[in-house]
Structure formats: C-alpha cells, structure tokens
Design a protein that fits this description.
Length: about 260
C-alpha cells in the first residue's frame, strides 16, 4: 500500500532508540524527511546517517521549557513545513508509591506530558497549514492501574485525555490527533524489566519471557516496528477519518473497554 507520505516532514521525539528509532526508520522508508529529537547526539547522528531520506539531528532535553520552541523553529527553518509530530519521548520511574519522591513525579510529567503538550502547542499552526497529524505514543498503563506504575499510569492517562482534547479542537482546525498505546514491546526498557524479573525469580531469560507473557496472558512481546507501522498508517491519508482514537498495540493485554 502506498501511504502517500513521500516528501512530507515529520518530527519524532525519543528517536535515538527503541520505538522512536523504529518510527524514524519506517517514516524515512516511506519517503518522509525526519527531524530526530532526543538527548543523545551520538545515537541521533548514527541513526541520521542510516536513513534513506534527509534528516535533521536535534539533541535536546524536552524537559527544558524552551525545547519545544527550538525543535519546531529548527524544523521549519530546515524543511519549510511540518506534516507530522510524533510525541514518543518519555520514560517514568517504576517503584513503590510510598517511596517515590516529588522530584521523580515531577520528572515523569516534565518529559512525557509537558514535552508532548508544549510540542503540540508550538506545532499546531504549522500542522493546520499542512492539514497535518499528531500521533502520541502513550502506553497501556494509562488504562489499567498498577501499584508499581503509579507515575507512568498517571502520566499516560493524562496524555490520553490530552489526545482526545486536541482531537476535539483538531476537527475545527483540520489537524488529526490520535494516540497509540504500546504494550510489552521488545526494547531496552523492557529488557531491564526482564533482567529484574530474572534476578528476583532466579531463572533464565527464556523462562522469564515465558512466565511474564503467561502472567500478562499474551503470546509474547511485540516488535518496535509494529508500533512504527501503525504510526505511518495513522499519518497517511488512508487514515483520514480516524480522529481522537486510542489504538492499543499490546497483543491483547488490555481487556477493558
């Protein structure tokens, strides 16, 4: 299927590794020019060198209130337009609710929620001009509460609500806004959780993967490219009637409505 994305321009945050890297690679394969945003210059430059299309490296910490202005300005200066904003950056700390600090809560919201909000606000008029799209990469933890994921769950729930609110405005302004909730995707972050599980249960990697999958009632873990392909579809004209949707890509782990 031709997704009709050739020569369009995307910003991908959290692009240095994992899901963000896969998104950038997939969009480039579809012919999009890509602004790559993350904190690691070295990883971004390595990714940039491997892409099939023109790219812009923007190493910056999105917790900085001025970062969004810089990202949008540099992207427009380089490419002259913006068609897609993929808000993917942000990791939140897991742990015991009673021991998580105010600073850890603030950090979780600063990067993932405020980074998304500020970039969306700064990008909005440019996306209006191009009849563009925002895709927020959120997470299934925003739908189902977990004692070990209080920060992430709260941030993700807020982002899902923000997605719906921006989609509501987008109907009038001609900007499509949707979100994807990844489940257990095979990234470095998931590997860290698996390693912890291995240590706690004194088992090998293969058994840990089996047990975790069984506990979650899923067949296994997803691949980052599966999230990337969903982003590409949502960014394309083929998804023109999809607005305000929250797409769970989680292997069936989320069973609530």
């Amino acid at each position: 299927m031709d997704l009709q994305l050739s020569d369009k321009v995307a910003i991908v945050t959290g692009a240095s590794r994992g899901i963000g890297k896969a998104i950038a690679e997939t969009l480039s394969e579809e012919g999009m020019k890509v602004a790559l945003v993350a904190r690691s210059r070295d990883l971004l430059e390595s990714l940039s060198a491997s892409l099939q299309t023109e790219s812009l490296v923007l190493p910056i910490d999105l917790r900085d209130p001025n970062a969004a202005t810089h990202v949008i300005t540099e992207t427009i200066n380089r490419f002259g337009k913006l068609d897609l904003l993929v808000n993917n950056a942000g990791a939140t700390k897991r742990g015991d609710f009673l021991t998580l600090t105010d600073e850890e809560w603030q950090d979780g919201f600063d990067l993932k929620f405020y980074g998304t909000m500020r970039l969306s606000r700064m990008a909005w008029t440019h996306l209006q001009a191009s009849a563009g799209t925002i895709v927020n990469i959120v997470g299934v933890g925003g739908k189902t509460g977990s004692a070990e994921f209080t920060i992430g769950g709260a941030v993700n729930a807020a982002l899902m609500n923000l997605t719906k609110a921006l989609a509501d405005r987008g109907v009038k302004d001609g900007v499509r806004v949707n979100a994807i909730n990844p489940g257990s995707i095979a990234t470095e972050r998931l590997q860290t959780r698996i390693n912890k599980y291995i240590k706690e249960h004194n088992i090998d990697l293969e058994e840990a993967v089996k047990q975790i999958s069984r506990d979650m009632k899923i067949a296994g873990f997803g691949d980052p490219v599966e999230i990337a392909r969903a982003v590409a579809f949502l960014a394309s004209p083929h998804a023109s009637y999809i607005q305000g949707s929250i797409l769970d890509v989680d292997g069936g782990a989320t069973r609530s409505l």
